[in-house]
Fold this sequence. Notes:
By secondary structure, the chain is of the alpha+beta class. Helices cover 30% and strands 21% of the residues. β20 and β21 form a beta hairpin. α3 packs parallel to α7.
Amino acid sequence: MALLNQMKAADFMMKFLRGDMTHITPYPFEAKKPQFDPDSDPRLPKSTPEREGIPSGYLRDFFRAADGGSFPRLHSAAVLRHGRLIACVSREPYTATLPHMTFSMSKSVVGMGVGIAAAEGLLSPEDKAADFFPDKLPLFKSPRLTALRVKHLLNMTSGANFNEAGSEMERDWVRAFFFSDFAWTPGEQFRYNSMNTYLLAAILCKVTGQTLTEYLTPRLFQPLGVGPLYWETCPMGIEKGGWGLYLRVTDMAKLGQLYLQKGRWRQEGEWRQLVPSRWIEESLAMEVDTGREGMDRYGYQLWNFPAAGSYQYNGVFGQYVIVLPERDMVVAATGGDAALFFNGVLKAVNDYFGDGAQALFSRWRAQRPGRAGLMLFRGPLRDDPAALRALRRPWAEEEPGTWRAPLAGLRRFLCPRREAPAAPPASSLAEAMPFCLPAAGKEGWFRLEKSFGSLMPFLLAAVTNNFSPCLAALRFSVEEEKLFLTTLDWDGKNQNRIPVGLGGAALQSTVRINGEAYAVAASAVVRRDEEERPVMLLNLYFLETPCTRRLKLVLCGEGKILVRFTESPSVEEAAQMLLGLVSSGEEPTAAGGWNRFAQELVQQKLAGRMKAIARPRAAGSSRRAAAQEATKES
C-alpha cells in the first residue's frame, strides 16, 4: 500500500509540475461555499474593559503586541471576561462580521460533537473504529487496524498513515484511511493528523444518520447563537472535520466560553448543559506528550497553553481560542501569520494575561502617570472615556486606513459605522493611468505568458481543492474615479472585475472562482523603480481566509508589463504545511527525504513560474478569444 501511495503522490506532483491544476485531484470540484452576508450582532452580553477589571489602554497595547506590525498577522480578535464581550477588533480591510477559515480549530468542535454523541449513548471512546465501517475495510485486517479505538483518534495517537495530503489524491477518505494501515500500534505515540478528526466526523455521521452540521445545529450552534457558518465536505459529502469550518471570531469565542462554563450555556434565561461536564474533564486531562515547545500536552482535540490551567483550540496561521480559567477570560483570534502553531499572538496572550501578567502590568502602570491605583483583574475600574475612544480609533503610528480597532462600546458595539470611501487622490489615479492604456491609447487586455499565477493563492486552492487555471489576461480601467482590475483565466470560465483602492484604501467586492464566491478587498500603490518605470504593487485580500494574493506589475515599455505573483502566507510556508505531508509515514527516513524533495520542487517551480511578461491586446475582444489567443502565444 505504501508503494501505491507513493505512486499517487508522484502522479499528483507530475500534474502540478505540468500546470494541470484542473485535473490535479481524482474528483471534480463542486462549488458549495455560500456567499456570506456580514452579521454585526455578536449575540453576547456586552461590557467595557474597565467594568471587567482591565484598563482599555492595557488591552490596546495587547492588541498591538499580538499584531507585531507584520503583514498581516492579526485579522480580528474578540475578548470575553466574566462571560461578557469587552472588545472586538479587526484590522482593515478585514472585518469581524464575516466568517473566517478556522483550519484545525474546528477539530475542537468535532471533539464537542463526540462528547455529545457519547452522552446520548451513540458511541464510546473505547469503541473500535473499524466496527463503524465494515464495508470500508481491507480483506486482511492488520492487528494495528483492529486495535484502533475512538480515543486514539481523539488524542492523535492512531499512528495512521493516511494524512492530509492523501485527501488530495483519494475520493473515498474513509476507505483510504483503513487501507493505508498504520505506522505503529495505536496509543503508542503522538502524531498530529487531521484525518483522525475526519474519521471522527465520519463516525458521527454514521451513528447519527445526519451530517455533522445537521447534528450539531440544534445541540450546539443554535443554542450558542452561532452563525452564519459553513463546513466544507469531502467528495463523499462528509464534513472534513479537521479543517474547513468558517466561523466569526465572536462565535469562536463562544465555543471557548462554553468550555469555561463546564459545558453550560444560558439560553432564554435558563442554563442548559450543551456538552457534558464529565466529557470536558476527560478532554482536558491532557494525557499525551506532544514534544512541542509551548504546546507540549494534548487532550481530546485540544492543546494545553503555557498559563496555569489554561488550554486552547488551535488552527494553523493564527486561528485561536485561548481559555484562561484563572482570569475568567477567553481570547479568540483569526489571522494570517506564517507560524504554523505557536506564534506571536499566543505569546502576547501569555505575556498580557498569563502567569506573568501582574508583573507586566506593574511595568505598564509605572510608565503612565496617574495609574498608581489601578489593579489588574481585581474588580471594576473607574471609567476611562479617553482610553476607550483611543481603543476605537485607528492607531496613530500606522498608516491611515491600515487599522480600525472598534471597542465593545455601549451603542455601536461590534463595528463602528463605515463611512463611504473617499475618492482616491487625483495623483493616485494619474499614476495608475499608464497601466490602463496598454495599446496605442486604446483600453485592452494584457495577455500573460503561461505561468503558475492564478487569481487564488496556492495555499487557499490546496486546502479547498478549488484549483483553477492560471491567469491568461488582465486589464485595468478607470470608471467613475475608481480603478478596476479585470482578470481572465486560461479556459475563459473565470472572469472577475475587481475594484482596487488607491491612496491607502482597500475596496471590497466578491470574486467567483469555479462558481464559488469569496469576499475580497483590493488595494494598490504605484511607485517608480530605479529606472523610472511605473511599478504597481497590488494586494488582493481574501477576507474569509489567511491568504493574500500579491501582484507586482512593472511597466516595461512598448505596451508590455512584467507581472510577478506572490502570496501571504508564502509558497514556502504552504509547501511546509501541505506538500511536506505526501509521504506515507511508514519509513521516517525515506519520508523526510521525500518531504524535502517535494518541497524543493514546489518552491522552485512556483518561484520560477509565478511571473510572466504581459503583452497588450486591443479592446473589443471577447474573453474566450482573449484566452484562446493567449494560449496560442504561449
